[in-house]
Task: inverse folding
């Protein structure tokens, strides 16, 4: 027992985080922390905000031109004026731009939702991995107590000459190997804790709230790619491409211009001594309205063709992604079914039976009713059955998380 206490103390020295206060959280609490603190989520939200702000650029016009003209040979004429000129696109051009920018903002929202779903799935995967590693540690710690007692009894028997030295050495070896595995399990557990804390963007370490390794409750449902976050994003990108075609076609529309002139005569500048008096009717001189008609369509045609190709690419990409995700879903379903069968097998084999056999075996060995070889066989069967069952449950949970990642069920 003294050696066991020393070994456990060494574990806490080697892993300070184990001795520090940790947060015991449920999966939903971990996801809530991540949604509030993750930089990936903040970046995605900034992208949505940026896209909404960009909608204000739909009505962007060319700069207003201010000009001053003076003809020293004339007086109150349009040649002596200050002018304001503004060129504008045909109204349908601005409407097409706004429609495209709104579609882009909607696509950014769908993209942000994908980020949230993926982060939730990553959190869930690490959370259940932690639960699995905790179960491994519990199994190894329980085995350590059995092996420590086995080593103690074997040592006493060797000292009294009841058994050979090989039995005492075998017990010691098994105990030390189990403690090495326990240290390795602690190392893996700490590494996973750091990964989870990094995803959540928090300090400290996380411990799952469940006291034991449990299976995820999941009910199968038909997979529909278009109803997933990724499917919605693909449809939104297709809408953006459609709006892009409309914007390209707006290049065929005419442009408009409006110019206002106001009489302005600089009377002090009169090098030819001409009559530079203003008209008595007032300073306003007039206005000019123009229309720009596109005559050369080559560039616009090329833009329209390119926009249509981009739309075709977006549609093909959506079809390919849908096909791949359906294949992944079928594979995940097979994995869930396979892992479910493994869990059922180990549950049928009897986890409690293995515990009882180990307990009875320890008592019988201590009473000298079985040999050390029989006890070693029981100990190996115990650890093997418990570890394989835990691995099967974790495999099932990870397969279900993969399904939920595809369907957006997390």
Result:
């Amino acid at each position: 027992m003294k050696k066991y206490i020393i070994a456990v103390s060494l574990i806490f020295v080697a892993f300070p985080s184990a001795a520090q206060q940790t947060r015991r959280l449920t999966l939903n609490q971990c996801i809530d922390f991540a949604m509030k603190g993750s930089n990936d989520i903040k970046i995605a939200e900034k992208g949505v905000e940026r896209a909404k702000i960009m909608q204000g650029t739909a009505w962007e016009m060319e700069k207003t031109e201010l000009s001053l003209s003076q003809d020293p040979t004339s007086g109150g004429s349009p040649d002596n004026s200050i002018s304001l000129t503004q060129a504008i696109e045909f109204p349908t051009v601005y409407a097409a731009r706004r429609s495209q920018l709104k579609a882009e903002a909607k696509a950014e929202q769908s993209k942000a939702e994908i980020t949230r779903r993926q982060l939730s799935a990553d959190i869930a995967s690490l959370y259940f991995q932690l639960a699995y590693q905790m179960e491994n540690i519990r199994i190894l710690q329980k085995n350590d107590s059995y092996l420590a007692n086995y080593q103690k009894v074997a040592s006493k028997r060797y000292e009294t000459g009841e058994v050979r030295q090989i039995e005492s050495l075998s017990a010691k070896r098994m105990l030390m190997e189990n403690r090495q595995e326990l240290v390795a399990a602690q190392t893996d557990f700490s590494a996973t804790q750091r990964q989870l804390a990094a995803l959540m963007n928090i300090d400290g370490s996380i411990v799952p709230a469940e006291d034991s390794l449990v299976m995820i409750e999941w009910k199968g449902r038909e997979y529909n790619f278009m109803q997933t976050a990724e499917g919605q994003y693909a449809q939104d990108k297709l809408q953006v491409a459609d709006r892009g075609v409309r914007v390209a076609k707006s290049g065929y529309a005419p442009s408009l211009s409006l110019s206002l002139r106001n009489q302005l005569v600089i009377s002090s500048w009169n090098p030819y001594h001409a009559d530079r008096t203003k008209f008595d009717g007032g300073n306003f001189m007039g206005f000019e309205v123009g229309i720009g008609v596109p005559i050369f369509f080559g560039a616009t045609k090329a833009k329209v063709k390119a926009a249509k190709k981009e739309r075709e690419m977006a549609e093909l990409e959506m079809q390919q992604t849908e096909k791949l995700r359906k294949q992944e879903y079928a594979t995940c379903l097979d994995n869930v079914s396979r892992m479910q069968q493994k869990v059922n097998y180990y549950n049928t084999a009897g986890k409690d039976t293995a515990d009882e056999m180990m307990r009875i075996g320890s008592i019988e060995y201590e009473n000298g009713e079985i040999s050390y070889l029989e006890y070693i066989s029981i100990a190996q069967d115990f650890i093997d059955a418990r570890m394989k069952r835990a691995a099967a449950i974790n495999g099932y949970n990870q397969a279900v998380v993969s399904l939920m990642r595809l369907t957006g069920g997390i």
Q: What stands out?
A: The chain has ten helices and six strands. The two ends are 45 Å apart (CA to CA). The mean pLDDT is 84.
